[in-house]
Amino acid sequence: MILQMTRARLAGPRAALDAVLAEVQDAGLLHVDRPPAPAPTSGDPLVRREARHVTRLLVDVEAALKELGPLDAPARDASPWPRAARRARSLRRTLVKLRLGRAALEDEQVLLARYREFFEAFEALVGHELTWPDGQAFYVVLHAGAQGALRELQRGLDAAVHGELELLSRELPSGELAVLLLTSPGAAPKVSKLLADARVEELPTPTTLGETNLLRALPAMKARLQEIPRALDALTRQREAIRDGDGTWLASTRAWLRDRQLLLEARAQVHAGEHLFVLEGWVPRTRFDELATRLRTHFGPELLLEVVGEEAWTADQAPVVLKNPSLFRPFEVVTRMLPLPRYGTIDPTPFVAVFFPVFFGLMLGDVGYGVVLALVALALRWKSKPDTTLRAVASVGLVCAASSILFGFVFGELFGTLGHALGLRPLFNREEAIVPFLGLSIALGAVHVLLGLVLAALTSWRRGHPREAMGRGVAIAMVALTGLSLLAAFEVLPAALFTPFAIAVLVAFPVLVALEGLVAVIELLSTFGHILSYARIMALGTASLMLAVVANQLVGAMGSVVVGVVFALLFHLVNFAIGVFSPTIHALRLHYVEFFGKFFSPGGATYQPLGHWHPSS
Amino acid sequence: MEMGLIVLAAALAIGVPALATAWAQGRIGPAAAASLAEKPELSTTAIILIAIPETMVILGFVVAVMILLRSGGTAG
Q: Which of B54, B56, B63, B71 has the most A C-beta neighbours within 10 Å, making it the best mutation to test the interface with A?
């Protein structure tokens, strides 16, 4: 259900505004809303300046905290501003520098590790007298099996630089070819161009060593590779020292700044003059007294607190709080997948909590699959934290599993028809009674859709649209009368009733058109389409059963019992996955399209009371 | 011969809507995926939109079953 809201108005001396807002924030009950009068407070230069300070400082603090990882601490006043701003900025810069330094070292480590393969391949050449001591070296790695390309490369380069080139190649452990090209200073530009033209990619030269010749750089590179892990450790220690020394200050400052930000946003909604302020907001009706007592205790008669009459506001202005009994609450997750319903309309959660498991159970309807689903849901519930979406999904899963087990007993199914073999007697055999199962699905659809129409009529009535409500009522009567006429035509009801029912439909038709116009005719036809859509309950249920039957038949059809059992188990696993996914999607669809479509009015604003910031908020 | 025609009719009753559903879902799926890339909050709407064409194949399945059941007496 949607909680009834009260619009509260607070008025008092301007000097008490900050204290009142702080108390309202501590109470965490009032959803602050702009009063109808213009609110010049947003133009208050002091408030604007503080908002700027908060935003700037928050950027530095959050950037620093991002570098440090998750940290939490209670809010603590960080003023004076200049000192806090200097500290946060300095911490942010240091931490960013540490991260960049770390990234550079890691990149260098990766690059040098790539050269290590080169080092090992050409280590024997260290100390080798170079033909061109002032020449240039090129480092190339060719893919495995490129010996032919290597010979061609050597021929081409020799011809181009007239032999002023020494080419050394070694096979790397990976099968690739490491190629070292040593050239005279004069030939180097030509070699570089030829390599680029031939699209031969060079390894980038390690510039950090200040040495371009690999053979001369080799000892320095090895030393550097040993040095890097030590440098990385030093950076990690520095970061940890900052985390230990300043982490708590950063986290508590963030909480304080977030709180200030919420307070300043609320303050922008307040109508404040030179001497007085007026603040309005929403509070659940049942908790208004709690807020009133708290504020009166703190501020006494200088603060005026009153309820704004319902004639002064419209339902569309009020925020929405859903509150359902604990048994239904997990099903709010289905409702919340759509935008919240508007204030003054109907929360469909209790109806979802009844019909969703029934539809699911009718489709899956198997003791075995139900038990497996219950185990999965229990595991999810055990892994999840209270009041999270995952916990709600696990609870919905458990209810659906119970429904599947219950209908499994009704259908006598345990992993398909295996239940029959084990002595499970069906009360309703859906494998044979396909047409009655279809009738049951459509009848259930008729009940569900008619309930949607009843809720639509109620909503229209409550929102002050009696003509619309009457139109919905006539539509309900027409759907019910058409259904009864069909039952009489097929002699489920006495055939003599057909004529009176048909006449009643014909009489109701012009009344419906008069009340709602020609659109109502199209809506009526679509309503019949929606009812027929519930045939999917029978279709998916039968399909699920047939797949389970096929899985069981695999045991005897594979030649070997062991192979047959393995295949059957795999098939059951696939059927279980389909059997959980498909009924969920189709039960959701039946609710969102066929049921909600009749009465659900989305667009309600979320109730967000002014309170203290929390990391999960 | 008559049994063959009945089976063919049942196969067509589910086969043609299955093709239609596949075609519709094949067009809705990429559009939904593209929308989700920009607005992940549309996931519920996307699931519903993808599930809507399945009505065709489900009703096709129901009709196919009805054809086979109704013809059971005459064909057998």
A: B54
**Mind listing the pLDDT tens digit for each residue in B35-66?**
988 888 888 788 878 888 888 888 888 888 88
Contact A396, A354 (CB under 8 A): no
Give residue for tokens 């689903």. A373
CATH of the domain at B50: 1.20.20
Q: Which chain A residues are Cβ-neighbours of B55 within 8 angstroms?
A: 533, 536
Nearest to B62 among A338, A538, A586 (CB): A538
Question: How confident is the model at residue A130, as a pLDDT?
Answer: 61
Interface of A with B (CB under 8 A): 337-338, 434-435, 438, 532-533, 535-536, 538-540, 542-543, 585-586, 588-589, 592-593
Question: What is the total residue count of chain A?
Answer: 617
Quote the pLDDT of residue B69: 77
Q: Please say whether the beta carbons of A191 and A183 come within 8 A.
A: yes
Q: How is residue A613 written in tokens?
A: 């910031």
Interface contact B59, partner A, CB < 8 A: yes
For chain B, how many structural domains are there in total?
1
- DSSP class of residue A202 equals B
Please give the sequence-ordered ranges of beta strands (E in DSSP) within A172-270, or none if there are none.
177-183
Q: What is residue A38's three-state secondary structure?
A: coil
Residue-number span of the structural domain to which A185 is assigned: 131-212
B68 touches chain A (CB under 8 A): no
Q: Write out chain B residues lying below 8 Å of A592, CB-based.
A: 44, 48
Task: Say how many domains are in chain A.
Answer: 1
**DSSP summary character for residue A177:** E
C-beta separation of A224 from A208 below 8 A: yes
Token representation of residue A278: 């007026």
Taking the CA of residue A223 as centre, how many other CA atoms within 13 Å lie in the half-sphere pointing to its CB? 7
Say if pTM beats, i.e. exceeds, 0.80.
no
What whole-number distance in Å separates Cα of residue A422 and Cα of residue A366? 14
User: If you search the block for the tokens 């199962």, which residue do you land on?
Assistant: A437
Using 70 as the pLDDT threshold, list the residues of chain A that sit under it.
Answer: 37-43, 119-120, 123-133, 204-217, 616-617
- B11: contact with A, CB 8 A cutoff: no
Cα A88 from Cα A316, distance rounded (Å): 43
User: How far apart are alpha carbons A305 and A314 in whole angstroms?
Assistant: 20
> Quick check: B48 and A592 CB within 8 A?
yes
pLDDT at B74: 41
Per-residue pLDDT at A441 = 94
The overall average pLDDT reported for chain B is: 85
Inter-chain residue contact B62 with A593, CB threshold 8 Å: no
Inside any domain, residue A178: yes
Q: Residue B73: which pLDDT band, with cuts at 50, 70 and 90?
A: very low
Q: Is the ipTM of this complex over 0.95?
A: no
pLDDT the model gives residue A197: 82
Q: What is the CATH number of the domain that holds A141?
A: 3.30.70.2750
